[in-house]
Amino acid sequence: MNLALIIVIVVAIVLAIVGGLNSALNWLLWVAIIAGLIALIVFLFRVISGNRRA
């Protein structure tokens, strides 16, 4: 194979992996934000309702 073709293929694979990781990290960031908001709502509900279970 031509060396330039191999370099282009390797660069394309690396960019695809980096793009996929970026997309996955972005998705995980949103999941973490939503989970944090749910935990905050549950915490506030327990504080307001006065549940003092340990």
UniProtKB/TrEMBL annotation:
Originating organism: Microbacterium limosum
Keyword Membrane set for record: yes
Organism domain of life: Bacteria
Protein name, UniProt field: DUF2207 domain-containing protein
Keywords: Membrane, Transmembrane, Transmembrane helix
Keyword Membrane set for record: yes
Residue ranges crossing the lipid bilayer per the database entry: 26-48
